[in-house]
Amino acid sequence: SLPLVIDTDTAQDDCVALLIGLLDPLADLRAITMVAGNVGFDRQVRNAFLTLNAAGRLGEVPVHLGCRRPLTRPWVSAENVHGDGVGGLDMDFTGCAPEAEHGVDALVRLAAERPGELSIVAIGPLTNIAAASLKDPDFAGNVKTLYVMGGSNNGRGNITAAAEFNFYVDPEAAKAVFAAGFEIVVIPWDPLTLRQAVFGPSALAEIAALDTPLARFFTRVCAATLEFDRSVGIDGTTHPDSLTAALLLHPELVVRSAPYHVDVETAGELTRGYAAMSWGVHGLAANATVIEEVDAAGFFSYLRALLARSVTPV
Ligand code: BDR
Ligand code: CA
């Protein structure tokens, strides 16, 4: 099984990505690290514990609190899209204590403990990852592969015309990460999750019909985003974070990928957080593999099978 850490701003699809890390037999999830992003930081921490509980794994995987704000800028929320991120789910959080060790220190330590073995699924702003590579010059080299959900491949942004949320929130961190020497795989918002792997009404009905606790959890945490997506003309839910986790564990779901030079705009007036994905013609050396096409039907079947499983929430 594959040792990994999920670095997350836990709301909606982040929860689904965590379910994958917690339940896929190929995954050996060593830690969850929290980064400022989608919703209030403490809310995100609660959402992570709610997800551990939904997976029947409460107390089994450490949760580390990372950076509470971007490297140099104030926090930007996506609460207008995600609400509280879990559709109002609640539980008794007594005993749900995060670790004392900071998320950035945990990332550095876990990568150094097994150089070349640990993969990271980064599905929030890249603040923790950038901070870890600033802290330890060996960090990027110690990490096996860094799967990054962020940017759009010369396509649409979702928070501005130019930018995808994760890169927009902390563009300095994203820029630093692409310059740090990681082995990076990028899962861009557009086209992968906006045009390819959208779960439309019939797919969502199939999941609801499973009627397992996990399927009910999925439907609940995705409800606010579904409403938002419909209001902007997307016919279904988008799954950037769970797709990222699934592609790490199941590379056979990748249909096409290519080497790119990726850089991130930090100074633009209209383009803060824009991902410049240069596909080779501009003479820049590649620093990432960008996924261009996925097996969307295969991804859906995979997730449906995962949600059909029976687990016992604690
Ligand atoms: C990304 O931003 C967040 O809203 C989602 O959790 C995802 O990681 C998509 O742009
Ligand atoms: Ca996310």
UniProtKB/TrEMBL annotation:
GO terms for molecular function: hydrolase activity, hydrolyzing N-glycosyl compounds. This is Purine nucleosidase. It comes from the Bacteria. InterPro entries: Inosine/uridine_hydrolase_dom (IPR001910), IUN_hydrolase (IPR052775), Ribo_hydro-like (IPR036452). It comes from Marinactinospora thermotolerans DSM 45154. The lineage of its organism: Bacteria, Bacillati, Actinomycetota, Actinomycetes, Streptosporangiales. Residues 4-300 form the Inosine/uridine-preferring nucleoside hydrolase domain.
